[in-house]
């Protein structure tokens, strides 16, 4: 009954019940990602999903949070998704939060009314992988969306009341000049003002298109110092009035950074400057924690 492929979830969902309502990713073409390579995208049947919900209810005493996997559960047709959410609420009446990844495609396909109905039936938080706010970078990584389109979709989600957690990838250009990407990404964040912003550092994944470019010598990874400089430039270009919870403390990152915008902006820049002044990041595998 259960799919045995690896299941991915955001770090903040570590203690959530992971309910796999789809297999794979509806887009599955991003050049840096290998998470769902070789996994045909499939929306599970209601019978499968309800059986799995019942299975976990029988084995779990208390479920406060549920995360809907795999890569883009929001793509599920609205009527079916709402039926899933109603069943989750019926079976796990104690559940306080349901969240999921949301691709640009799924946000585009859903009308505002559909999104409102989905939110009203339980999903409160959407995780969105933006990766960059720069059109040329988005094109290079096969994101399938422009910066303006992506920003409009995030604002669409916020308008109907979803909390949004948006991630970006430092080092996505490798050893190429990152400055324009960093500036436009900071301005992109300023425009959208997500509730949560996460910055990861690029980690080459086997079986990804980018990894194949690296094998052929067509891509070279950025050094740790350059990664920090890029993150600093992104931060310098974030200008917001709404509170944003900022994190760059994923296992991929070279320096553990966390704070809130706008109040912690200068402190975060100072922490990066201090790390850079120590000149201890020449080895790209080194981490300052």
Characteristic key phrases:
alpha/beta, globular, single chain, 289 residues, eight-stranded mixed β-sheet, 10 helices, two-stranded antiparallel ribbon
Structure characterization notes:
This protein is α/β, with parallel strands linked by helices and 289 residues long. The protein is built from 10 helices and 10 strands. The strands form 2 sheets. An 8-stranded mixed β-sheet has the order 1-4-5-6-7-8-9-10. Strands 2-3 form a two-stranded antiparallel sheet. Strand 9 and strand 10 form a beta hairpin. Helix 2 packs parallel to helix 4 and helix 7 packs parallel to helix 9. The N and C termini lie far apart (42 Å). The C terminus is likely disordered.
Mean pLDDT: 93
- Helix/strand/pairing category: alpha/beta
The best one-word shape is globular
Largest sheet: 8 strands, mixed
Distance between the termini: 42 Å
Helix content: 25-40%
Total beta strands: 10
Would you list the SSEs in sequence order as H and E? EEEHEHEHHEHHEHEHHEEH
What fraction strand?
A: 15-25%
Low-confidence stretches: 281-289
By DSSP (H or I, 4+ residues per run), the number of helices equals 10
In which order are the strands of the major sheet placed? Answer: 1-4-5-6-7-8-9-10
Cα-based radius of gyration, to the nearest Å? 19 Å
